[in-house]
Design brief:
The complex is a heterodimer of chains A (about 150) and B (about 500).
Chain A lengths: L5 H12 L5 E5 L6 E7 L10 E7 L10 E4 L29 H13 L9 H9 L1 H15 L4
Antiparallel strand pairs in A: 1-2, 2-3, 3-4
Helix pairs in contact in A: 3-4
Chain B lengths: L9 H4 L7 H12 L4 H5 L4 E4 L1 H18 L4 H10 L4 H10 L2 H7 L11 H5 L8 E3 L6 E3 L3 E3 L5 E3 H14 L19 H7 L3 H18 L3 E3 L8 E4 L6 E3 L5 E3 L12 H14 L2 H8 E3 L6 E3 L6 E3 L7 E3 L22 H35 L1 H17 L4 H30 L4 H27 L5 H32 L7
Antiparallel strand pairs in B: 1-7, 2-3, 4-5, 6-7, 8-9, 10-11, 12-13
Helix pairs in contact in B: 4-5, 14-16, 15-16, 16-17, 16-18, 17-18
The chains are: A alpha+beta (about 150), B mainly alpha (about 500).
The structure holds zinc ion (6 copies).
Chain lengths: ~150, ~500
């Protein structure tokens, strides 16, 4: 494997030195481009109290292209589909090489606080979120309890 | 930066010093294609532009604006692109509207109000001071850092890599935004050319720029011929034929082959219909019927005429007469009930829905047939060339045998016209004028087939002199019938005779 670019080394160091509150991102022991991520559900959101596991991978041409991020823990959210893929503009066309792992994870945390059913990835969830928000929130809380709190 | 606009074009520019070229082209085209083109094109002026001339034309457009509006040429290009290269529109907005809003919409910094401190101050930064590049995280001397007028600075090598990714991976040219997150200020071409070192990337960038220049400029259109890199430039957009230097003639308005007498809109509709229906519709007509009860399409899968609808209705019927199966008893392969009343009713209902398809297939087959024949055009030209040589060996002069080439030219024109008359006819509602049109069509069609027969079969070395007169008479007749047909349709457009079935 090619040597790790200075950017990734530095970014990892800084992430360890000043971690983001509510988020942990640890590089894999065997692959420095692969991060094990845990995001805590934001307060006052249906995901409060949950610990959500994600995986984050820095592709070969990072930071020219965006990191690949996916939820591993099941989550009931209009912008996250069954496979844990996330609909977030900065992971697609709004990616800038000046963004970092830190900013990406903060944006994901913000997405948990403010779901956007008008730009859905999981259509059935988004549909319910629009027509019956309280039921959708109940489902989200239920999923959080069932899948994100077991240990 | 203002004087740098030429850097993008310098290397492709050099071959194009002779300024009189543009004028000559139009004339070249006319004189090398004396056949019939003049009748169609005389009032529609156009020019054929090569890749180099397209770039030159773009530079001229920018200069034109810059003689009036004094802003950097690179900014002008972005503004012009924003207005789809409509100079008048840009000028109008520039002088009448809110300029600040104009620059924001076009994603450029207002060159009149920018606090150029960032740029002007750069040389004064002490050389030993370092800045950290937000992309590679390297601490670098300020001289290695650069940015657009928005002030977001990154190192030159990160900029280069960023632009390369945008150009090569994403194919973006005109609208590359600043590398900073959420900054939509566009990178101008002077900066792109300065920051990219690889000539392959530069070339791709130039292609992207010229391509979008042609594509969003209403007065330009790429020649659709597969290996041609020319574009056609007109003074106003109209549905008229234009002929490229590669000899391809097409409609400037829609880019399809020249399609008189049908209008662009109906042709587009027709092509879409053909794409959707082709392949399948022929097969459906021959191999399927609809269940007489629920209308689901049923495919005949064996020799037996006893059909059972696969849909939930499970109706049993006869493939031949479409009547109920029961009275057929055990005659599995024969139907003798074709004239029974119940079977007739079922067939009538089916015929109605099928008539539309039959009608479409009628026009489609004729359209395809002429298209197919046109594809053999090249073969016909070469066989005619042989015949011409043969005739010259039989004491005919070069000039005396030219009638054969002329005959093929006219044959092709007639076929092309006929092909599009079927599109026109498909959408045409019946009235007195449409009957005349159909007579004209029939007349031209039989004359054309006759001419085609002469050219393909009837010429032998023995009867050369005789056949010459016959061929000449026939092509003159075809040519005049073609003109009559087209003029009649055009007259109908003017006098509003045509009603469409849509
Ligand atoms: Zn850098
Ligand atoms: Zn910027
Ligand atoms: Zn061409
Ligand atoms: Zn057209
Ligand atoms: Zn049925
Ligand atoms: Zn029958």
């Amino acid at each position: 494997m090619a040597a790790l670019p200075r950017r990734i080394i530095k970014e990892t160091q800084r992430l360890m030195q000043e971690p983001v509150p509510g988020i942990s991102a640890v590089p894999d022991e065997t692959n420095a481009r692969y991060f094990h991520v845990i995001v805590t559900g934001p307060e006052d959101s249906p995901f409060e109290g949950g610990l959500f596991k994600l995986e984050l991978f820095l592709p070969e041409d990072y930071p020219m292209s965006a990191p690949k991020v996916r939820f591993i823990t099941k989550i009931y959210h209009p912008n996250i589909d069954r496979l844990g893929r996330i609909c977030l503009d900065i992971l697609k066309d709004k990616w800038s090489p000046a963004l970092q792992i830190r900013t990406v994870l903060l944006s994901i945390q913000a997405l948990l606080s403010a779901p956007n059913p008008d730009d859905p990835l999981a259509n059935d969830v988004a549909e319910l979120w629009k027509i019956n928000e309280s039921e959708a929130i109940r489902n989200a809380k239920e999923w959080t309890r069932r899948y994100a709190m077991d240990n | 930066m203002d004087s740098e606009e030429e850097t993008l074009y310098d290397d492709i520019d050099s071959g194009n010093e002779s300024s009189g070229d543009d004028v000559d082209f139009a004339m070249d085209v006319e004189s090398s294609n004396p056949i019939e083109r003049t009748a169609d094109t005389d009032e529609y002026p156009f020019e054929v532009l090569s890749t180099e001339e397209i770039v030159q034309h773009m530079v001229d457009c920018i200069k034109d604006v810059n003689t009036v509006v004094e802003i950097p040429a690179t900014t002008t290009r972005i503004l012009l692109n924003h207005f789809k290269w409509d100079k008048e529109k840009l000028m109008e907005r520039f002088y009448d509207g809110d300029q600040e809003k104009l620059f924001t919409e076009a994603h450029v910094i207002n060159p009149f109000t920018k606090t150029s401190a960032l740029i002007k101050n750069r040389p004064q930064i002490k050389t030993n001071a370092t800045e950290e590049c937000g992309v590679c995280f390297m601490a670098l001397p300020a001289s290695m850092m650069t940015g657009l007028e928005c002030g977001h600075r990154f190192c030159t090598s990160c900029w280069g890599e960023y632009l390369t990714t945008k150009i090569m991976e994403e194919g973006v040219g005109q609208t590359i935004a600043c590398a900073a997150h959420a900054c939509d200020i566009l990178v101008d071409d002077a900066n792109v050319m300065r920051l990219i070192k690889d000539s392959k990337v530069k070339l791709k960038y130039q292609h992207l720029i010229t391509n979008s220049f042609v594509e969003c400029n209403r007065l330009l259109r790429w020649c659709p011929s597969p290996d041609c890199n020319n574009a056609i430039k007109v003074q106003y957009v109209e549905s008229k034929p234009v002929t490229c230097k590669c000899n391809h003639t097409f409609c400037f308005n829609c880019g399809e082959n020249w399609h008189d007498p049908v209008k662009c809109r109906l042709l587009r509709k027709w092509i879409k219909k053909c794409d959707d229906d082709s392949e399948t519709s022929n097969w459906i007509a021959a191999n399927t019927k609809e269940c007489p009860k629920c209308n689901v399409t049923i495919e005949k899968d064996g020799g037996c005429n006893h059909m059972i609808c696969k849909n939930s209705c499970k109706t049993e019927f006869c493939w031949v007469c479409l009547g109920p199966w029961e009275p057929h008893g055990s005659s599995w392969y024969n139907c003798n009930r074709y004239d029974e009343a119940d079977a007739k009713v079922a067939r009538d209902a089916q015929e109605k829905s099928r008539a539309a398809l039959q009608r479409y297939l009628f026009y489609c087959n004729r359209y395809m047939n002429h298209m197919q024949s046109l594809k053999f055009e090249n073969k016909l030209y070469s066989s005619v060339k042989e015949k011409m040589e043969e005739m010259q060996q039989h004491n005919m002069s070069w000039i005396e045998v030219q009638f054969l080439k002329k005959a093929v030219d006219i044959l092709c024109l007639c076929r092309q016209t006929l092909m599009y008359t079927y599109v026109f006819a498909y959408y045409l509602q019946k009235n007195n004028q449409s009957v005349i049109f159909e007579d004209n069509q029939r007349d031209l069609e039989s004359a054309t087939e006759c001419l085609s027969e002469y050219l393909e079969r009837d010429i032998t070395s023995e009867n050369l002199a005789d056949i010459k007169q016959k061929v000449q008479d026939k092509y003159r007749y075809c040519d005049s019938r073609r003109k009559v047909l087209l003029e009649h349709v055009h007259e109908g457009y003017e006098k509003d005779w045509w009603d469409y079935l849509e």
